[in-house]
Amino acid sequence: MKRWKKLLIIPPVIAGIVFFVFMKQSSRKPAQTIAKERTYAVRFIPAPRVDVIPRSIGYGYAQPGQTWDGIAEVGGKIVEMHKDLKKGIFVTKGTVLLRVDPSSYGLAETRGQANVMSINAQLNELEQNKKNTERLLAVEKKSLKLASQELERKRELFESGYISESDLEREETAFLSQQTSVNNLQNRLDLIPAQRKALLAQKQSGVSTLVDQQLTLKKTEIIAPFDCRISSVNVELDQFAGTGAVLIEADSIDTAEIPVQLSPVMFASLLPRIENPIRLIDFDMDTIRRAIGISAIVRISLFGQQIEWPARFSRTSESMDLNTGALTVYVAVDGPYDKVIPGKRPPLMKNTYCEVELRGRAIMDRVVVPRSALHEGRVFVVNKENRLEKRIIEIETIQGDIIVVKSGLDKDESVVVSDLTPAIDGMLLDPVKDESSLTELIESASGENAVK
After folding, report:
1. Which of 53, 101, 160, 381 could pair covalently with 76 via S-S, beta carbons 3.0-4.6 A apart?
2. Cis peptide before 422 (omega within 30 of 0)
3. Average per-residue pLDDT in the chain?
4. CATH placement of domain 68-98+226-252
């Protein structure tokens, strides 16, 4: 029995030997493969040459172009108030908003008028006295001439012995009396100009006082100086208003200003290229604005859409921000309350948060590439053999996602715009033109869409 168990091992051994011989005879040598160069699929755009509009984006809160504080210039009780005077109402220029009790100021004006009228009466009286004195003086001078002739005749008669000495003395006395009358009238007439000057001085003082009183009376009215919207009311009817108290605050509605902060580099990129130095103090602001040539667009997002207002560059702040080092630029929107469509287009109200796009003058005929195509000062170019070439470029300016190339890249050279890892000089590429990226780049550079 043990012998038969040992014999059972023989068949599997024979089968294994047969299988090994079969496999050895049917085996083949391994096939040799030829290594091929790997290609990498990339997206590219032909570098366009366009007129670049320098642009920068800033954000700020809209503020009224002009504010007004209605200050009480005279004290007194408020006796009249505009029927709708509340925060938020619109009022037109010249509307009487408040009136302080004018009673005491009106009485002072009446007294001033009476004083001027009294002085005018005195001047008229003085003029009439002058005329009367001139007439009397003319008569007295004639009488004096006759008295002089009579005195001369009496002297001749006295010398001839026809009259006594007492008669001559009486005639001399009459002559001297007449001469005294003439002198008195002449003196009175000579004093009239001085009296007239004194009365005119009194009248001028009286008129000045009257004008001051009339101005004071006008100050009892608080009148809107321009079309505006009331932002604060600090007084009620029959309440006493002290001199200097701010009774009303209002904002203009003809213009709005938005201050935005830009870095000095961003602002400088908007300025025209001027070689010669200038002195800004030598020019007015309108001339400076025209020379700079910056325009602006103000936007807000509302109801799922962007609402825009054309704006203009107004001015810059006088200093840099101490905390951020930024420069504040002010842009102005004319007619912020115009073209309002309820539910669709709101007015540009105070404290509205706005996006402001600033645009400079066009930089003509420049090669541009996407900012994402720049890698440590180089762009990846697809050469004529579809191989990668790392090209160093000189940058003129960076605007958002756009790079304006100064040198190192020519028009229509193929620039890789997709991520390429690894990026090895000379590697074989399978380039595919990215039309959408090219269109977006051209539109952004030429100002047909917003900088983000």
Report:
1. 101
2. yes
3. 84
4. 2.40.50
Distance of alpha carbon 272 from alpha carbon 289, whole angstroms: 12
- Asked whether residue 311 carries a pLDDT value surpassing 90, the answer given is yes
Residue 209's alpha-carbon distances to 27, 104, 119, 215, 372, in angstroms, are 131, 15, 13, 10, 76
In angstroms, the CA 389 to CA 375 distance is 12
Buried b (16+ CB within 10 A) or exposed e, 134-151: eebbeebbeebeebeeeb
Q: Is 408 left (phi over 0), alpha (psi -120 to 50) or beta?
A: left
Pairing of strands 67-71, 55-61: unpaired
Share above pLDDT 70 across residues of the chain, in percent, rounded to a whole number: 89
Amino acid at site 351: N
Classify domain 42-53+363-446 at the CATH topology level.
2.40.420
User: What are the beta bridge partners of residue 416?
Assistant: 44
Q: Where are the beta strands (DSSP E) in 361-422?
A: 363-370, 374-375, 378-382, 388-392, 394-399, 402-407, 414-416
- Which of 229, 220, 137 lies closest to 179, judged by CA? 137
Is pLDDT of 175 > 70?
A: yes
Element of type H or E holding 329: strand 327-334
Phi then psi for 356, rounded to 5 degrees?
A: -120, 120
Judge whether residue 97 has pLDDT over 90.
Answer: yes
Q: Within its chain, how far is the Cα of 69 from the centroid?
A: 19
The residue type at 87: K
> Alpha-carbon distance 386 to 137, whole Å?
124
